[in-house]
Amino acid sequence: MQIYLPIAEVSVNAFTLTGLGGLVGVMSGLFGVGGGFLITPLLFFIGIPPAIAVATGSNQVVASSVSGVLAHMKRKTVDFRMGGVLLVGGLVGSGLGVLVFTILQRIGQVELVVQLCYVVFLGLIGGMMLQESVRALSRSRNATGGRRRSHQHSWIHRWPFKVKFRTSGLYISVIPPLLVGVAVGVLAAIMGVGGGFIMVPAMIYLLGMPTKVVVGTSLFQITFVTAFTTLMHAVNYNTVDVMLAVLLIVGGVIGAQIGTTLGARLRAEQLRILLALLVLAVCGKLALDLFLTPDDLFSIATGAG
Amino acid sequence: MRALIVALAILAGGPALGQGAGSTVPETGGILPTDEMGWPLFPDPGQPRSPIEAEERAMGEQVVAGLSNASVSITTSFDGSEILIYGAVKREEPMPEGDLDVIVTIEAPSQPATIWQKQRRFGIWVNTESVRIGAAPSFYAVATSGPLDEILDPAWDSRFRISLPQALRAFAGTPDVVDTRPFTEAMIRLRRQNGHYRLQESSVTLVEDTLFRTDIRLPANLIEGDYKTRIFLLRDGRVIDVYRAGIEVRKVGVERWLYNLAFEQPLLYGLMSLAVAVAAGWGASAAFRRLRRS
User: Fold this and answer.
1) Chain A partners of B273 at a C-beta cutoff of 8 Å?
2) Chain A positions in Cβ-Cβ contact with residue B265 (cut-off 8 Å)
3) How many angstroms separate the CA atoms of B194 and B17, rounded?
4) Out of A235, A246, A292, whose CB is closest to B267?
5) Are residues B213 and B132 in the same domain?
6) What is the span of the domain harbouring residue B37?
7) Burial class of residue A299, CB neighbours in 10 A (0-12, 13-18, 19+)
8) Cβ contact (<8 Å) for B266 and A234?
9) Which candidate in B74, B251, B285 is best for mutational testing of the A interface (most A CBs within 10 A)?
10) Cβ pair B262, B272 in contact under 8 A
11) Does B156 lie in the same domain as B55?
12) Which pTM does this prediction carry?
């Protein structure tokens, strides 16, 4: 069934879009990533103009995150205090990121910087997570004793402005989570994604949060940051296509519920290996695009650009 | 994945692409006018550079034509539209000697565009050089009654801006590349691949050198605006008469309402988009909870 999108001004198959949304929704519920890093490139592939893909993608991420965060709230796996701190950082970072994006656009190298960002970050994070989770998995399999200490003191515990994050069982300075929020916000605005795939590992490895609350808390932050981004895009550039968003959302919300249910059944280590493999796969695909000779050396960008 | 999509695009554009494999762009060298810097100039195709003189018209043949639709409404289920263009040659004297031909063009409103070329730098492919086109139609179709390069004299093509390369207009500023031709050729090639530029050679049926008709399919990915239709009557490669008509392409219903809201009340529109997203997210969550409980 073909459907004409009023803002994107293209006609696309409604079922393709719903399916795409569903796929990304499963990721969202399973891993606590907004799925923006998948949906935005996928929308490019089916011929949605990039600016509209980015803006509408963030609108779709709002829906799947709301759906996911509600499921996590039921299971009491959202650390609201930590989420709030990350959110404040995220909004500041998002503002900064938009500024950087505008500068890049003026130089004319947005596409390249975005792609390089993806390759570098996805590669680093995917590799790190894979190594860590494989080690954790083999440890839990062959060792009965020698369990890792749940609480390790590091540089993070020496910073001032300590706050108790009860749900996470942490007593750390607010500065590291604030910085994580800002960094994620900047990258999210430049790369046009929610930023969950960066925030989740940062929360686990930098802040030392327990995996159980990481997903819900990151979804909480993503919901608000992407809502803010969607509004910015709608007001400043008129690039949110609500028709496209609804189709993606219909698939996405159903997918998110399936993903959350699946996530409750899988073990944390397995979940992390899956996410690591997914991140590495996307990274590999983008890296190939950069290194292999493209099908056509020329491309057209409409608008005054 | 990308290769697959390109393949699909080629399949979909099959009939239009069928005639000219390889270099499909007619040679334009030498006939494009240039400015003092030597860059080709592209004036507005709507305005012939010089009107048809009275003596050139003296052959006494005129074209009268009609369109199946004077307007196209874009609804939610809009999936392209077939336009039938038909007409006849009006004569007050006996038919003169020479080959008679008809060319029909449909042109969408123009937009500025930038054509980028990638080059390998430090092992990766980077957009390095670009050419900005001040105005290029987002859709342009040419239907002819015979092979374009045989029925149309290049000088007349340049005067009325009929063929595809002529449809691109005015570089925005002085291009910073030495040779712009690979860029404009790439633009035409890419747009032909996705079906937005079409050359339908020999698709105009001409009966008894008097009646003609052709179908031009407007693609689903249309932009709004006033589309220009031109019907050229040619004898021995020279344009002897032109008939012009407009096609109004407009969004209607929900499409219209959403589009207006997005551009006139962007904050309201943004909030509405968010409300839809939150409601859908919450609704699905609630529905699944109930489903699991029962």
Assistant:
1) 59, 230, 234, 240, 242, 245
2) none
3) 10
4) A235
5) yes
6) 5-248
7) middle
8) yes
9) B285
10) no
11) yes
12) 0.69
Considering the domain architecture, whether residues B128 and B31 belong to the same structural domain is answered as yes
Same domain, B73 and B140: yes
Tokens 């690039």 appear where? A239
| The pair of three-digit structure tokens given for residue B32, joined into one six-digit string | 């494009």
B197, B274, B278, B289: best to mutate for the A interface, most A CBs within 10 A: B274
Contact B111 A303 (CB under 8 A): yes
Overall size of chain A counted in residues? 305
Got the DSSP string for A31-97? H---SHHHHHHHHHHTT--HHHHHHHHHHHHHHHHHHHHHHHHHTT---HHHHHHHHHHHHHHHHHH
Residue A11 to residue B272, Cβ atoms within 8 A: no
B35 & B166 share domain:
yes
B9 in the same domain as B98: yes
Residues B243 and B215 in one domain: yes
What total of structural domains would you count in chain B? 2
Q: Which chain A residues contact residue B114 at CB under 8 A?
A: 300-303, 305
Instruction: Please list the pLDDT of chain B residue by residue as tens digits (294 residues).
Output: 444 433 333 333 333 333 333 333 333 344 444 444 444 444 444 444 445 555 455 557 888 888 888 888 888 878 888 889 998 888 877 777 778 889 999 988 888 888 888 788 777 777 778 788 777 888 899 999 888 888 888 888 888 888 888 777 555 556 666 677 788 888 888 888 888 888 888 888 888 888 999 998 888 888 888 888 999 888 888 888 888 888 888 888 888 888 888 888 888 898 998 998 888 878 877 777 787 777
Q: Are residues B188 and B175 in the same domain?
A: yes
* Chain A residue with Cα closest to B172: A304
